Fold:
Amino acid sequence: MADKIRKELPETPLRLALTIPGILHVEKSPSQIDAANALDSFKVNALGPLLLMKHLSPFLPTKSASGFPISEGNLQLPSHAIYAMMAARVGSISDNASGGWYSYRASKASVYQIAKTFDLYLRGRCTERAIAVALHPGTVKTDFTKEFWKGRDLLEPLDAADRLLRVIAGLRPDVDGGRGRCWDWKGKEVLP
Ligand SMILES: NC(=O)c1ccc[n+]([C@@H]2O[C@H](COP(=O)([O-])OP(=O)(O)OC[C@H]3O[C@@H](n4cnc5c(N)ncnc54)[C@H](OP(=O)(O)O)[C@@H]3O)[C@@H](O)[C@H]2O)c1
Structure:
């Protein structure tokens, strides 16, 4: 993918990246943990964003690049690049009140760490030209949650996407502007 981008868009810096992969193998108790399924969860949920970050990071603007023009229209993208990776609230250790879903929780917890660590790298390489964050989309009506639709208030996928985009477009690249942290669809921080 990176080779193809480099070939087709050699001079174009990456302005907005959203890496989304996520799967859930439900485990209610330790006895339900299956090694192959757990490995699958870690591969898709943790290694996936890690390798996407590896191959996409060279496309982000460096500190000497000029800022992007502020976009017009309904969604105003800022002048810096945004690299966002999908975490999940259940990956938050401090928010964990109900347990279960061991592999999903553990693999998604790593996304908070990857986003923070990547953002620290970008602070040096890109300064205020690029930020990294993690995201929680809310509980969204997708195939992913199909088993849990009944009796729940769910966000429509387009609504969740729209709200997340507005939240990340509003973050600033300075140290206190929200970079390196996890944000939900309401613009509230989800602590790791
Ligand atoms: N829905 C929710 O309520 C909710 C809540 C919290 C967090 N999330 C997170 O939000 C993200 C999107 O979830 P969703 O609800 O939109 O579910 P979804 O429709 O099942 O989307 C899952 C995503 O993961 C990708 N994926 C799955 N297996 C993969 C693999 N082996 N290799 C590469 N990519 C793979 C899929 O790619 P393809 O489309 O190419 O198959 C798809 O983009 C996930 O990271 C999920 O953990 C969702």
User: Anything to note?
Assistant: Residues 20-23, 44, 48, 86, 88, 136-137, 139-140, 142-145 surround NAP (CB under 6 Å).
